[in-house]
Please model this.
Amino acid sequence: MATIKDVAKLAGVGLGTASRVINQSGYVSEATKKKVEDAIAELGYVPNETARAFVTQDNRIVALFLPSIHHAFFSELAYFIEDELDKNDYKMMLCNSSNQIEKELSYINMLKQNKVSGIIGISYNQIEKEINNSMPIVLVDRHIGEIPYVSSDNYAGGEMAFQVLRDSGCKQVAYIGTYTKTILTEVEKRKKGFENAAKESGLDYTLYLEEDPIKDQTVFLNQFLTKHKNVDGVFVENDLMALELVQLALEKNIKVPEELSVIGYDGIQRYGALRPKLSTIRQPVEVMGRSLVDLLIKRINGFSVTPAIHPVDYLKGETTR
Amino acid sequence: MATIKDVAKLAGVGLGTASRVINQSGYVSEATKKKVEDAIAELGYVPNETARAFVTQDNRIVALFLPSIHHAFFSELAYFIEDELDKNDYKMMLCNSSNQIEKELSYINMLKQNKVSGIIGISYNQIEKEINNSMPIVLVDRHIGEIPYVSSDNYAGGEMAFQVLRDSGCKQVAYIGTYTKTILTEVEKRKKGFENAAKESGLDYTLYLEEDPIKDQTVFLNQFLTKHKNVDGVFVENDLMALELVQLALEKNIKVPEELSVIGYDGIQRYGALRPKLSTIRQPVEVMGRSLVDLLIKRINGFSVTPAIHPVDYLKGETTR
DNA sequence: ATGAAAGCGCTAACAA
DNA sequence: TTGTTAGCGCTTTCAT
Model:
């Protein structure tokens, strides 16, 4: 493997000069530039990125940790994050934390080890003590200290879901979702927005919750259908759960949306081809992904940033009237 | 940030000694070991991984490039690859190539730049000229020169799909899929297996193909349903397409599986909750993911390896009789 | 068993 | 505009 030294020697110039033309920094005359470029071509020289990262203390790698890439919303988000990082000449390292705090911490540790320049994290663990405001970290749906975060407007989404159900004539609505005892995420606001809107309107509502992670989602949802036969409109925490609820309802010969309206949250594109098409509150995944990268890069470069909360919209499918 | 130099100084030992206890290499007396460990604890020393990677010429990062993580089968595969890499103390860099050859080549280039130790690639481009047998690369479903690859037993899968359709009484079967003019992938063997089995049995069969990438899958599938009303059993190249075919058939009031049996390929777990449940030829995704990592690590360490072809099985759902 | 020193390939500060 | 040089933090000989 040819090194920059070989290039300099062959071109008959100094090390620094060779470095300058390679990095297009500083002044170099056209003549010497040509000489160096020829030498590079002749040797097939490729800069050693590891050496470069070592000396500049910046490797242009960003870590993304999330519960599991094996989940439609996350993989969609990861797609856009990678795309935006690539545009900014960063590489993306991916870690399925499986919600294990050790794995998340090991990535946070990589920041100290200089192995990554920054982190985008989706975490439902108590990582408060391990991170601080000076680290280049951006979180999704999670508000910890001054760490910047990105989320969709969960509260407005909850309100919106309620409005849709009420406007379509539902008399008895419910929210189905999860909660955690240990941490507080922005996701809870979906429930709050829904609940407050319901209270305000005076309509009867039910909260059907189970602690995350749910052991058996099918059992959980079937139980809901059995216990709450009077409910005619449901807002479900996420699309995947909503989709299963719809299927289970249909199996029980409950007509959707005639007898039961269902709204999900996320707006996962991939499910668009499925029938019945789910009505949902759509998060602007692409915007969120790019926004995360934007904020993170600013943090890496030492700028301070503020959280970004992105508006959601209602995507009507076939599961609401 | 404390360096190994600080550690050595505080512990009152030489640089090399400090390095030895950190890496648990060479001989160190218990006494000095303790001194160094104390110093590390006191300083909160963390090794700079970039420096380490630089000097050892090995950064323990593996790149995975695939068309898009935003695709169920790939994200499932990526999940297991990451998991297995993590067990072997490697990190995974992820790249959505979007089938752009430039992006794939830029990753291959990272091998030369020392930015990654190896590559796992899913590529449908002509990258033959850019890679060679000495590079630590493993491919999925693609046989190029002596580059090792991993795939499911596509040929057997095709045969299996045919047998299922025939055994359930189908009289007129078809294969629906894509083809490429420029390259040859193992995926084509799904069609070959199916076709040969059909020929052998003497049953009438149709091949319904379009060049990849398909512009509008819905149009493509609807056209099939319109043109081939006599077909009563279909093997579709992948689950996603099969799933859409089922939905489109149902919309046209074609009864599945009574009037039309459908079998997909992949066996994506996440779709298991959807109804009707798709019958499919399942690839052992987890085994394949771990196998990819296993082969790659052997390559990185200079061992030669042979391709791994993994058996598939038939997963009966509700779309076949 | 341990310390000193060389060197990995590169960038950047400095001098010329 | 260019060449020289000093590190970056670490591992690894090589003496001792």
Summary: Residues 3-5, 15-16, 19-20, 22-23, 25-26, 47-48, 50-56 of chain A lie near DNA strand C (CB under 10 Å from a C1'). DSSP finds eleven helices and twelve strands in chain A.
